[in-house]
Design goal:
The chain has about 270 residues and is of the alpha/beta class. It has 12 helices and 10 strands. Bound molecules: indole-3-glycerol phosphate (IGP). Indole-3-glycerol phosphate binds next to β10 and α11. This is Indole-3-glycerol phosphate synthase.
Length: about 270
């Protein structure tokens, strides 16, 4: 069993347990349930912003503990002040050290799109996402049968949520593309082997139809790489570890975005010349 298969197997058990403890009616009673969704698609493509979806992640199966002491309040506010377009909050506890409380805290302190980063295998988790105040969910093509991915996407759409579908190769992209998706992400990290390469994004970008917002995910640690990915056609950049490994993730994001803006300005000067 590879790590993704293990996480997914555990996720089914975890969701079954929560389902038996927290009834859907209670989720639907949350103040956020009727709340308006802030569009990830719009924020990520807004030229005034960086396109960065900044992630709050305490640990991961590939890296172990990344940051054991960061405050979600401080970091999420700081990310947005630094110029991020949106937030990604891990809610998986066992493998990533996150929780629904992290997402609720981020929601409380920020008016911006927030994606619930988790391994969604059941409609119940989409209701949970809405009840926490999320605007967008992640669906991982490598973890879901195409028919199931499509029905989960349509369920999320029905609640007004946006959907980021994550793929890792052309075959996943082809079999799982559907109209209900808003953003398509290419994960540079293979969730089965943990290998990371931005070439994965560069190789797939032209296969993503133009009506979807294109996001490159994982392993981005240099503003020059972001410039390269942007030139290739990406609108969004999901960055976690490179910020979270710092004792002040919000400061790391600020420095990164400042450098990115400087490089972008130089690029556009060059293209004018
Ligand atoms: O920390 P990184 O290398 O910047 O990557 C962020 C994000 O892409 C990564 O956390 C991620 C991408 N897809 C996922 C699916 C589940 C959990 C986590 C992820």
């Amino acid at each position: 069993m590879n790590i993704l298969e293990k996480i997914i197997a555990d996720k089914y058990l975890e969701v079954a347990e929560r389902k038996s403890l927290v009834p859907v009616k209670l989720l639907e009673g949350s103040v956020f349930f009727e709340g308006k969704v802030v569009s990830m698609k719009k924020y990520v493509t807004n030229p005034e912003k960086s396109g960065i979806i900044a992630e709050f992640k305490r640990k991961s199966p590939s890296k172990g503990v990344i940051n054991g002491s960061a405050s979600v309040e401080k970091v999420s506010i700081g990310y947005m002040q630094a110029g991020a377009s949106a937030l990604s909050i891990l809610t998986d506890t066992e493998y990533f050290g996150g929780s629904s409380d992290d997402l609720k805290a981020a929601r409380k302190f920020n008016f911006c799109p927030i994606i619930r980063k988790d391994f969604i295998v059941d409609e119940y988790q989409i209701l949970e996402a809405k009840s926490m105040g999320a605007d967008c969910i992640l669906l991982i093509a490598a973890a879901l049968e195409p028919a199931k991915l499509k029905s989960l996407a349509s369920f999320a759409k029905g609640l007004g949520l946006e959907i980021l579908m994550e793929v890792h190769d052309g075959a996943e992209l082809e079999r799982s593309l559907c109209d209900d998706l808003d953003l398509v992400g290419v994960n540079n990290r293979n969730l089965k082997t943990f290998e990371v390469s931005v070439d994965t994004s560069l190789a797939l970008v032209d296969q993503i139809p133009g009506n979807f917002v294109k996001v490159s995910e994982s392993g981005i640690s240099d503003p020059n790489t972001m410039i390269e990915l942007k030139k290739a056609g990406f609108d969004g950049f999901l960055i976690g570890e490179n910020f979270m490994k710092s004792s002040r993730p919000e400061q790391a994001a600020y420095n990164f975005i400042k450098e990115f803006k400087k490089l972008s300005a130089q690029e556009s000067e060059l293209s004018k010349a």
